[in-house]
Amino acid sequence: MRNRKEMRIAAIVQAHMGSTRLPGKVMKLIDNKPMLWHVLWRLRKSKFLDEVIVATTEKKADQVIFKFAQSLGLNVFAGSEENVLDRYYRTAKKYKIRIVVRVTSDCPLIDPWFVDKAISTYLEQRESLDLVYNGKTFPVGCAAAEVFSFEILQRIWQEAKSPYEREHVTPYIYWNPQLFRIKAMEHEKDLSHLRLVVDHENDLKLVKEIFYHLGSEKQLFHLKEIVRLLDYKPELLKINRIEVEKYSLMEKSTGD
User: Fold this and answer.
1) Is 122 exposed, middle or buried (0-12, 13-18, 19+ CB in 10 A)?
2) Which CATH number fits domain 7-185: 2.60.120.560, 3.30.360.10, 3.90.550.10, 3.40.50.920?
3) Could you give the angle at the alpha carbon of 46 between the alpha carbons of 10 and 8, nearest 5°?
4) Buried b / exposed e along 191-214 (16+ C-beta atoms within 10 A)
């Protein structure tokens, strides 16, 4: 592994107000703070990240995100709304990031412990790996991080052509396994039945309940506490069950 001082590791959090399923969700309040605040606060508890950066869009509606990130003392970049891959590349290039950790802004329960686990695995094996991510045995939204180098980001920025590949940043890597060396981190217990991402109003209701029972802005709770709560109060899982079932059917129909 190279000298740690040679690497600048940053989480780049993509965020915009234009969600079609839940408009403006990144600024909706959870425990009296915007959802984006929780994502950024939890990431800043990482032991490996040198910086957390917000990558938003140039649209007027997203100025609220730009100014909010600045108010927290964070670096922020505004780029293309549709071409998120370009937005990531230009953000990483501007701030001279060597190791990129990709995170989306709809994961207010992201666990910095698992983010760090993915980063440390990448750093230990980076000579033989191009990307590390937390795989499908994790709850959706709790460990959603992808780790890769600036060189890999630059490569897919140059090679990925389809609108889908450029909107979703990393599909080009997963769709070309013969070109890239990928490692999926797996949880010791399959928790893929838990949906902790916020895409819909019911997802937001569940997350608010979890914060009500477990947290405040001064308390960092982890996945193990969330699992313990949901085991103790399984009725909470009914809140977004329809979303869980819907997305499970979508995955089966697409073969993912």
Assistant:
1) buried
2) 3.90.550.10
3) 25
4) bbebbbbbbbebbbebbbbbbeeb
Greatest CA separation for the chain: 49
8 A C-beta contact, residue 57 and residue 81: yes
SS3 (DSSP) at 125: helix
**Residue 100: closest CA among 113, 91, 110, 108:** 91
CB 15 within 8 A of CB 36: yes
From start to end of 33-173, where are the E strands? 33-34, 51-57, 76-79, 99-104, 131-134, 146-149
Phi, psi at 221, each rounded to 5°: -110, 155
3-state secondary structure of 94: helix
**Residue showing tokens 């590791």:** 9
Residue 219: count of CB within 10 angstroms of its CB: 10
Three-state DSSP state, 76: strand
Q: Which residue has the tokens 């313990």?
A: 228
User: pLDDT tens across 89-144, in order?
Assistant: 999 999 999 999 999 999 999 999 999 999 999 999 999 999 999 988 999 888 88
Per-residue pLDDT tens over the stretch 188-243? 999 988 999 999 999 999 999 999 999 765 689 999 999 999 999 999 999 988 77
Pairing of strands 33-34, 29-30: antiparallel
Whole-number Cα distances in Å, 89 to 86, 98, 243: 5, 11, 32
Domain segments of the chain: what residues?
7-185, 201-254
